[in-house]
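The data layer described in this paper is built around a simple, fixed record for each protein. We quote a single record here, exactly as it is kept in our systems:
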Amino acid sequence: MLRFICMALLLTFSTGVFASQNLDGFTKRFNIVKNESGDVTYVRMNFVSKFSLKPYLTQILSDLKSEISRMQSKSYDGELEQFLAKLEEGSDKSEELAENIYAVRKSLKNLKDVDVDAFFSKLNSFGIMDKFSRELKDALMLLDLSVVASTEDARYFYKKNVTYEVVKRVIDFAKSKLDNVPLLNLVSFVMVEVHELVLEQRLFHQNMLLHYLQNVSEAELGLTVSEADHVFSSIYESRISAINLPESNSAANNWDRYGLDKFYAMVRMGNNTMRRNTGDLDEVGDRLSYAFFDAVEDGETVVKNLFVKKHSFSKKMATAYNYDKPNEVKRFRSLLNLGQVGLGFLPLPGWLKGQVESFIKSYYVEQKRLEGGLVAHFEINNNFVMAKKIKAQLMNPYIQ
């Protein structure tokens, strides 16, 4: 219990720690696995999508067609310019920023001239996508995506970091077979995106689990103090790069404290951000979790993200949700994602394409993964309507 008292003290702006809360979401989403001795060995997520390319291909093709149809509206150019202006908000203007925004504009405007049906019908040329699907399925079986934490093995995730090799290998295979650059770009984009979205299931649920560990006593979750500490450590161990052996050694050597130290550092950073970087907000509301708080900004009630900036050129906190404009974040992310798809149909040098892709991803990839903690907040407080709205803006067909 001492650990939770310390955590409550760290959460200076938090409210309702250990208040009566609804744990149906926890029991619905997570399974605590024990060995014959009754010790917890794994925490698993109950909802793991059976791997298939179809959900993503259906989603992205539908989004592309809807956007191309929307472009016929007279108001579309105005909407696009508003979107592009928003990309620049809160940024220190630079040549690179202007370059990125120009490329995004060009990418979206060019979509209306792309025969998306023709390109998607050729995605499986030379059996490339079938090969990718088979190899990723095999790798995911080895990985066992349902495991969000392993309490006993301090190198559980480090030893299973194999899926990235599948993507690299199949992209190299595609390069040897395809001489159509836009088609190769689309094939590569789909493989990279599907891989990230499939793995995002685990990241999203880990951030959800962190919220429960922060707000609910370990006993109520079916864990001992030691087991909860090891769950923390396993979550952070899973985020160690395959090439970062020194960090893997650090996790193994400090298994009892590794995750807690990482989490406490994050919480302190969030508290400091609340103190130092909220002066430009109209009003600061409740702290919702380790990563989010309510605020009023420019007259609108929003949820702000304490740990991820608006984008790579901004010092402002990202907005996770706008209560006054419920579709704003979802629509913004959709345009970013379509802009990223569209880059592949433009004759851009590789360095510029990579630069713009990184810029686009800085707006939403880490942001939406952290929103697992936000969904947990709403579920634990019986606000299932808001939980559903946050999930809808994830644009990940594999998260149930």
The CA atoms of residues 33 and 314 lie 42 Å apart. The beta strands are 30-34, 40-45, 147-150, 283-287, 292-297, 300-309, 317-322. The mean pLDDT is 91. The radius of gyration is 22 Å.
